[in-house]
Amino acid sequence: MEEQKPDQQENLIEKIKIYIGLKSRLAVLSTVEKVAEFYAAAVSNIVLVLCLLMMLIFASLGTAFWLNEVLNSTWLGFFWVAGIYLLFFIIVIFIKSKWIEEPLMDRLVRKMLAEKIEEKNGE
Question: pLDDT-derived band of residue 99, with 50, 70 and 90 as boundaries?
Answer without folding.
Answer: confident
